[in-house]
């Protein structure tokens, strides 16, 4: 898999999205994927090699690093990007099913291939709920794993085989903190956009159904 595949996936769903959904795709492209690939990935590239403790006890440094960074920030972000994008596959599969059905029966079943209605609406709403859920789960996971959204300059470790409490230093903590805040902020923005689009579509089609019943 490559990040290009993820870009193609999001671009394919873009034509079935509302205006809010297109903003979400732009945020996912520019403020998350491109920043991740161009900058954030290189900052955390050698985090284990640059993690230093003021002791030469064999194994102590590795154990301390594993304790404070059970999962690498950069790998967790990569997993988050993949997970919040995969619900879009539901929309892609549903559209492919519609097109295949029309081709198989050689007749038109749906008003417009780019219009969200009927079963495609339910699939689209489900994808929005899943994306929002994944975003929240990963934010909570980040907070729990790293004891808040912060990158300390110094951590104190007293885990065996360290003979006593040792000081360990994290490289480029300020730079990492800036990118951490940036990526957390974009994640929160994506949650707001997903909830806004969910509310907009639910309200729009609730009014539409109500008017149909009223006219009848």
UniProtKB/TrEMBL annotation:
The chain crosses the membrane at residues 20-39, 77-97, 118-143, 178-203. It is a multi-pass membrane protein. Residues 134-201 form the Connexin cysteine-rich domain. Keywords: Cell junction, Cell membrane, Gap junction, Membrane, Transmembrane, Transmembrane helix. PROSITE patterns: CONNEXINS_2. Residues 42-75 form the Connexin N-terminal domain. One gap junction consists of a cluster of closely packed pairs of transmembrane channels, the connexons, through which materials of low MW diffuse from one cell to a neighboring cell. A connexon is composed of a hexamer of connexins. This is Gap junction protein. It comes from Fregata magnificens (Magnificent frigatebird).
């Amino acid at each position: 898999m490559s990040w290009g595949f993820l870009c193609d996936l999001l671009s394919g769903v873009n034509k079935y999205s509302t205006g809010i959904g297109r903003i979400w795709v732009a945020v996912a492209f520019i403020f998350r994927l491109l920043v991740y690939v161009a900058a954030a990935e290189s900052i955390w590239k050698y985090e284990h090699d640059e993690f230093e403790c003021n002791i030469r006890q064999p194994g102590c440094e590795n154990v301390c690093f594993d304790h404070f960074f059970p999962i690498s920030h950069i790998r967790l972000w990569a997993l988050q990007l993949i997970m919040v994008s995969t619900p879009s596959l539901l929309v892609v599969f549903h559209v492919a099913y519609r097109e295949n059905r029309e081709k198989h029966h050689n007749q038109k079943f749906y008003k417009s291939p780019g219009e969200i209605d009927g079963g495609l609406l339910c699939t689209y709403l489900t994808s929005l709920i899943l994306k929002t859920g994944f975003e929240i789960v990963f934010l909570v996971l980040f907070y729990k794993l790293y004891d808040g959204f912060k990158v300390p300059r110094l951590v104190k470790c007293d885990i065996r085989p360290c003979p006593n409490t040792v000081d360990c230093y994290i490289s480029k903590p300020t730079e990492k903190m800036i990118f951490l805040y940036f990526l957390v902020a974009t994640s929160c923005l994506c949650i707001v956009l997903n909830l806004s689009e969910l509310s907009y579509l639910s309200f729009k089609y609730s009014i539409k159904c109500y008017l149909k019943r009223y006219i009848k």
